[in-house]
Amino acid sequence: PYTLLIAVLLSAQSTDVGVNKVTPILFSKADNPYDMVKLSINEIRQIIKPVGLSPMKSKGIHGLSQILINKHNGNVPDNFEDLEELPAVGHKTAGVVLAQAFNIPTFPVDTHIHRLMFRWGMSNGKNVKTTEKDAKRLFPKNLWNKLHLQIIWYGRKFSPARGWNLNNDPITKKIGRKSVINSLKN
């Protein structure tokens, strides 16, 4: 769970390509909180620089590693409350860790899910918190973790934010919000 937590934290405002480039280097030096705190914040920052926001992320990684040692015996907690108390860990990061590392049903909402739930008329698109509530209301709990990944995959492949083409997006074309479809005609 630790390396997953760090990788998800690094993915904020970054790409999978960038994260996949830096994690092998970082984890070869420290793949647990005990080794991570032996690195300086600056050492961490230099390694993770390509993913962006490295000053904040390096402090967060070092700080959360220290807290995991001091408060959780070096273990990643398996609940939202404790995860969200860690530096640089927000609700989405906590949800991804709970879903992927502990198989706890969550429905983490990232930009892809937020955009698609709006395009499909399943949420009003006001904020990710509302979108998460709407997703949990609409879909059975036993499908949340799987659907989270499937919607992200679909969004990346067929319904990106930039360069989006309705003709390449079969779901939005079939069930999409009228205002979204009509905006393409103007």
Question: How are the elements arranged and paired?
Answer:
Blueprint: H1 2-11, H2 16-29, H3 33-36, H4 41-48, H5 54-72, H6 80-84, H7 91-102, H8 111-119, H9 128-138, H10 144-158, H11 170-175, H12 178-185
Helix pairs in contact: 1-2, 1-7, 4-5, 8-9, 8-10
Task: Provide tags for this entry.
single chain, 186 residues, mainly alpha, Endonuclease III, domain 1, Endonuclease Iii, domain 2, 2 domains, elongated
Would you summarize the structure shown here?
This protein is an all-alpha fold and 186 residues long. It has twelve helices and no strands.
Plain-language structure description:
With 186 residues, the chain is an all-alpha fold. It has twelve helices and no strands. It folds into two domains: 101 residues, Hypothetical protein, domain 2 (Endonuclease III, domain 1, Orthogonal Bundle), CATH 1.10.340; 75 residues, Helix-hairpin-Helix base-excision DNA repair enzymes (C-terminal) (Endonuclease Iii, domain 2, Orthogonal Bundle).
Question: What top-tier CATH class of the largest domain fits best?
Answer: Mainly Alpha
How many strands? Answer: 0
Strand content: under 5%
Quickly count the helices: 12
Tally of domains: 2
CATH homology superfamily of the largest domain: Hypothetical protein, domain 2
Mean pLDDT, to the nearest integer, reads: 95
Largest sheet: none
The proportion of residues forming helix, as a percent range, comes to 55-70%
SS-based structural class?
A: mainly alpha
Radius of gyration: 18 Å
Runs with pLDDT <50, length 5+? none
- In N-to-C order, the SSE pattern is HHHHHHHHHHHH
Shape: elongated
Through-space gap between termini: 48 Å
Within the CATH hierarchy, at the fold level, what is the topology of the largest domain?
A: Endonuclease III, domain 1
CATH arch. level architecture of the largest domain? Orthogonal Bundle
